[in-house]
Design brief:
It contains eight helices and six strands. It is an alpha/beta fold and about 170 residues long.
Amino acid sequence: MNEIYILDGYNVIGKIPRLRDIKLSRGLDAARKALAMMLSDINHNRPRIKFKIIFDGKTGEVLNYSKADLHGIECFFTKSGEEADDYIGIILMNRKDNAGVVVISGDNKVRNKCKVYGASIQEPLELQKLVGNQSKITQSTKTDDKNIKQQDGGDITRWYTEQLKKRDAIL
């Protein structure tokens, strides 16, 4: 059975320390790309999993459910002023069966919608279990962690950003 993972994009970025650090040092676009790359790595090793990332649309921009593809992962941007939480609810409501759907978000509003529509919910940090040893990002980080002594967060973020640049995740 195929599994579908729907991610509350900005919520996930804000809750996973590595992605949050990339957002702070390189910006939101770089964090979105890093998240998509992480999921792409998982998808490469576990092709039965389908990922969809839902991002909040920006207020003032004219977007009509814009769809993008980052590293082979479907990304959706909601309409201007609409929250990803609401769009995730619409997706769940329109599906006939949500038994194989896992939503990743730390948002209570999203959690409640999952309960109503029968989808599973996981905290963003649970995503790291999926990544495990399957992600090239995680593998290279774990391998090189021994070489990183206690340094300030900026040094670690710079090192991690360089690792992502090597993989073309950050332009």
